[in-house]
Design brief:
Length: 257
């Protein structure tokens, strides 16, 4: 049985929770009884749904206690830039500008008036050119690594935002399993800035490579860490081996393009 789920992020989540130019990343693929494939995000996201993601960040902040919540815009076509791009929270009585940083990230305020106004998060671009993802990074990690707890928290944020777009059938499958971020029957894929040849989990003296079924056969930048496996603590490092060693230094944080 195959169904489509507009989350995970992935994002589902993710995350993120970066996509290659011109491609839409599959947020999560749940194996065995069901496969979950991402659909395109709406260009306008209800502000209340983003608040759900912010609430999830606070609820699960212990996964990455030293990280802050940001979101990132991911270009879906080559050569897209931030020039003339604006992001606003827009409702009948509110109009709040949201600054976009040079690395495509942004933060959202908590605004009770915007929530009550049922405002939208609105981007000034043509439909389908950019996607949002959570962007959570603990500072000070070695180059070419991610922290497993950061990835878990990105997943929680995106699941909180996007799960309400899922169908009853999709929710009936995922919710009893704890959601997309907590089941061993899932594959929540994340994306690196460059093609990878292997991914290794590192915790203290333990090192273990991800099996082949947790690397995408179609996209060499995509991998699915075992978010559900609590035997790997949140401080576990996810180390990448890159097809081109010269680019390894740039992947401490995903490239938004």
């Amino acid at each position: 049985m195959r169904v489509a789920l507009p989350i995970v992020l992935l994002l589902f989540v993710s995350g993120a929770v970066a996509a290659s130019p011109g491609t839409e990343q599959t947020p999560a693929e749940v194996t065995q009884q069901v496969t979950v494939a991402g659909t395109k995000d709406p260009d306008w996201k209800p502000y209340r749904k983003m608040l759900d993601g912010m609430d999830a960040f606070e609820r699960y902040h212990s996964l990455a206690p030293n990280a802050e919540l940001k979101f990132i815009l991911r270009p879906q076509q080559p050569n897209l830039t931030l020039a003339d791009l604006t992001l606003r929270i827009v409702g009948d009585s509110v109009n709040i500008g949201i600054p976009i940083a040079g690395d495509y990230t942004f933060s959202l305020p908590r605004d009770p008036a915007a929530a009550q106004d049922d405002a939208d998060l609105r981007l000034s671009s043509k439909k389908g050119l950019f996607r949002w993802r959570p962007d959570i990074h603990t500072a000070g990690l070695p180059a070419g690594t991610r922290r497993l707890g950061d990835l878990r928290l990105e997943c929680e944020v995106r699941w909180a935002v996007d799960r309400f777009d899922a169908s009853f059938l999709q929710l009936a499958y995922l919710v009893p399993l704890g959601g997309a971020c907590h089941t061993s029957r899932g594959r929540v894929f994340y994306t690196t800035a460059a093609p990878i040849t292997a991914v290794t989990l590192v915790s203290s003296s333990l090192r273990e490579k991800l099996p082949a079924d947790r690397l995408s056969a179609k996209d060499p930048t995509r991998y699915a860490p075992p978010l559900h496996d609590k035997s790997w603590p949140d401080d576990t490092l996810v180390e990448f081996e890159f097809a081109a060693p010269a680019v390894s230094a740039v992947v401490g944080k995903e490239n938004p393009a």
